[in-house]
Amino acid sequence: MDCIQLTGIRGYGYVGALPEERSLGQWFEVDLRLSLDLSLSGQSDELSDTLDYCDIIELVQMLIKTSKFTLLERLATVIAEKILTFDRISQVQVRLIKPAAPIPDFDGRIVIEIEKSK
């Protein structure tokens, strides 16, 4: 199966277990791997025969900005489910990254990875 990868989609959102995270917000990043058939667009060179990346990026940024969940797992799942509503996409892998989790003595990143299929 062919795929399109979109990486480094950034958005400021209000998801987190702590009340401060849901009120003050923080930055999130999303990487996507979209499985779809690219054979027609590979031959035709027509945008109408493939996926418009801008639509996916705008959707992800809107979901990050407007969602008010406690768990990152929920946000990643909602992103995956909404992306699968696009006709051409048969499978999606979502990597939701929280670059600065408010955890004492932890300077790493939290990454949730969700994979869904139609």
The proportion of strand residues reads 25-35%
Enter the CATH topology name. GTP Cyclohydrolase I, domain 2
- Helicity, in percent? 25-40%
Q: Are there runs of 5+ residues with pLDDT below 50, and where?
A: none
Describe this structure in words.
This protein is α+β, with helices and mostly antiparallel strands and 118 residues long. It has a single domain, classed as GTP Cyclohydrolase I, domain 2 (2-Layer Sandwich). It is 32% helix and 31% strand. Strands 1-2-3-4 form a four-stranded antiparallel beta sheet. The radius of gyration is 15 Å and the shape is elongated. The chain starts with a strand and ends with a strand.
What is the topological layout?
Elements (H helix, E strand, L loop, with lengths): L2 E11 L5 H6 L1 E10 L3 H6 L8 H14 L5 H12 L7 E8 L11 E8 L1
Antiparallel strand pairs: 1-2, 2-3, 3-4
Helix pairs in contact: 3-4
Summarize the structure.
This protein is an alpha+beta fold and 118 residues long. It is built from four helices and four strands; from the N terminus they run βαβαααββ. It has a four-stranded antiparallel beta sheet.
Provide tags for this entry.
32% helix; 4 helices; alpha+beta; 4-stranded antiparallel sheet; GTP Cyclohydrolase I, domain 2; elongated; 118 residues; 4 strands
